[in-house]
Design brief:
Layout (H helix, E strand, L loop, with lengths): L3 E6 L8 H6 L4 E8 L10 H10 L3 E7 L5 H15 L10 E4 L2 H11 L5 H17 L5 E5 H5 L5 H6 L1 E5 L11 E8 L8 E6 L3 H7 L16 E3 L8 E7 L12 E7 L2 E2 L7 E3 L2 E3 L10 E3 L14 E7 L12 E7 L2 E2 L7 E3 L2 E3 L5 E2 L1
Helix pairs in contact: 3-5
């Protein structure tokens, strides 16, 4: 089964060290943009969190906490949400979401003297989602088990979009694209408890293929005429001469550097997918200090991927960087997770192992 590990954050999580979050292996983050019907209610940490996640190449989604009392107010909230997202169009490759919860109902009753009906809640969320979709955003719907079981959202609405489901009972009790699995996670780089999430769909590929969120389908890379004997991975030393960029998409061209640098992160398929200590650069311009050879025709081979099974004989490691060498195992195992470019980037049930030593079956 496809899975990515993520979290969702807001100002309540304080000042986040995004480098530590990235190095802990989190693939995506869902960031609160704000709440209510005013741009003045933008989340105080939104820009900081967006820039931090972008700088580390972490996949990003966003959400807006709803306090609407009518479909018209829901449209107003969506317009404010879009306004706040606008500077980051092209960087958001996970869904954006309305977030109507218990506090939304409490506020409605406080102002209106009664609870909103399930029909009205559905109409408000349909209005919000429709406004976002009309501007090309890929939208899902945050909800929880109680809201589903009590019919807060109609079946028609739930079937029209993917769900971001708060379900802390284990695996999801209802079909969903993202599951919020808990609210007391401890994440390196975050001083508070954090909401932890799992994505069951490859949203970056889905959103890009559909040309949503300001993204365009990826073009097939042109085969290189030469290749280095060693591949570029995290920790590899590379020679690079050229400009630095602010993100992995090639935005924000900056100063020119020249020298040998250690690779901090690798994101395949992006224009500037190599993170050096000072910024992002194109992989095609990075040279490993080794002999280059003509690239032979790439042989077809099975791919190690999450959910697949592999044969492996060798030691286990404590993390994907190859630290903490442990006991030796031998057998056929189910792959839990794959992180490309790391020394031991394949997670088996008992620990991390090198991808090069795994044989797909």
């Amino acid at each position: 089964m496809f899975q990515l590990k993520g979290l969702d954050v807001s100002k309540h999580n304080g000042v986040i060290d995004w480098k530590q979050v990235d190095l802990a292996g989190y693939d995506f983050v869902l960031i609160r943009a704000g709440y209510g019907n005013s741009a003045n209610q933008k989340d105080a940490q939104f820009d900081y969190n967006m820039k931090g996640a972008i700088s580390r190449g972490i996949h990003i989604g966003a959400y807006w906490f709803n306090y609407c009392r009518s479909p018209a107010e829901a449209v107003t909230e969506a317009k404010i949400f879009k306004q706040i997202l606008q500077p980051y169009v092209g960087h958001i490759d996970f869904p954006v979401s309305p977030d109507f919860e218990y506090d939304s109902i409490r506020y409605f009753k406080e102002k209106m003297g009664t609870n909103p009906t399930n029909t009205l809640i559905t109409q408000m969320m349909q209005a919000f989602i429709g406004e976002m979709k009309a501007s090309g955003w890929f939208v899902n719907l945050y909800t929880n088990l109680d809201f589903i079981r009590s019919g807060r959202f109609s079946d028609e609405l739930r079937n029209a979009v993917d769900l971001w489901l708060a379900d802390y009972s284990g695996g999801p009790d209802f079909p969903c694209g993202i599951q919020q699995t808990g609210s007391t996670g401890r994440v390196p780089g975050i001083s508070t408890n954090a909401d932890i999430d799992v994505a069951y769909k490859d949203y970056p590929s889905i959103i890009r293929a559909a040309s949503k969120n300001g993204l365009k389908p990826s073009k097939a890379p042109t085969p290189a005429k030469t290749q280095t004997i060693k591949s570029i991975g995290v920790g590899t030393k590379v020679q690079y001469s050229g400009p630095l960029y602010a993100d992995s998409y090639g935005n924000g061209k900056g100063k020119t550097v020249s020298g040998t640098y250690s690779v901090q992160r690798v994101i395949s398929g992006r224009k500037c997918g190599i993170l050096l200590p000072l910024g992002w650069v194109p992989a095609s311009e990075c040279k490993i200090p080794s002999v280059t050879v003509k690239a032979p025709a790439a042989p077809s081979k099975a791919v190690v991927k999450a959910g697949g099974r592999v044969r492996y004989s060798g030691p286990l490691y404590a993390d994907s960087y190859g630290n903490g060498k442990g006991k030796t195992i031998s057998g056929t195992y189910s792959v839990q997770r794959v992180i490309s470019g790391r020394k031991c980037g394949v997670l088996l049930p008992a620990g991390w192992v090198p991808e090069s030593a795994c044989k797909p079956v």
